[in-house]
Design brief:
Number of strands: 0
Distance between the termini: 32 Å
CATH architecture: Up-down Bundle
Shape: globular
Largest sheet: none
CATH topology: Growth Hormone, Chain: A
Number of domains: 1
Length: 412
Amino acid sequence: MNAFRHRDYRIFWIGALLSNTGSWLLNLTLPYVLFQLTESALWVGASVAAQFLPMFVFSPFGGSLADHHPRRRILLIMQTAMAVVALGLWLVWALGLRDPYLLLALVALIGALNGVSMPSWQGFVHDLVPREDLLSAVTMNSLQFNAARAIGPALAGVLLATLGPSWAFGINALSFGCVIVALLLVRAGRDAVRTPKTASVARQFSSALRYVRTQPGLIMSIVVAATIGFLGNPMFSFTVVFAGAVFNVGPVALGLMNAALGVGAFAAAPIVSGSRWSPALSRLVSIGLVVYSAALIVFAMAPGYAVGLVAAVVIGACFLGVVASINTATQLIVADPFRGRVLAIRLMTFTLAAPLGSLAWGATSDAIGPRPTVLIAGVLMGVITAVLISRKRGFRMARLDDPHDELQASRN
């Protein structure tokens, strides 16, 4: 927890925790209400696609902004805009409008704004701590996100069972105020000077792509992000389908299942915290992917809710371990002038793979059922992981441990 020694990081971390808790209210409430309205797993996948596909489209613009403008200012503008749209989503539901397409449109707008914001969000962590505490800061940032994943769905389950979706949508809108206040209190990054903008967004993005091709460690982090996005991340919304169509449990049990995913992340945090006894990043990713695939298979074959709950804890732990590790590897390897754009590329990979995976899971589930769908995903993840681990030369998992690109940094 070395990052917590820094005042600005502590303030931002707390604000982000409260805000992301509200976001996870939305992440569970939206697929839940869509499944209730349509009784289709494909609509559950569509709820994920509506959030992530706009992020994919707008991330290059966000990455360019993050490299050329103060990230704190970008975050303040984008978080305020998302708060306004989230308030509109609450108002639509409160007025009794139950059109699935309207709900998806509003969530897609939030996703677009988040696509612009996210590269600055991830890069801002680098602005708050010195390089020696970066591993701790990135890991604690992932822990904060997964703590919200534990608290938010549990709260959503209670709200859905008692007060209804309107309260969940409303609290999500109000939660944006927490991170806005935190950003106003943070001193770091107020007058940060970025690299002058000398080319269009397209050219800047192309130069970042060319740079990534020279760094095998960055390429590997992108490949892992695609794998975890397509085959692993859909599980976080697919619990809605299992709760309603397989385990036959209500919203409170659904909330607990999603909370279990966050509890697993808490359990994994000490391992990926950057302490002296933490394994190498490549080893963490390898172990995490192997166990993740096994946990998906167990979840798919679970005879009842209790076994599924235990598998969800393991899935949450592996998700944190893998995502935090590839994010840390990216932050440690990339040359500083390319940081925002490279983070945007990795984010784009994940935000394209996640909705495509969710749509594929939804369509497959409607065709052959939820259990075979998750089983296939677990097997495929295991096969891909075995291939990546077995490679001994060139493009291999060990490249995640590559050092910081000091040469390119010195040239800029």
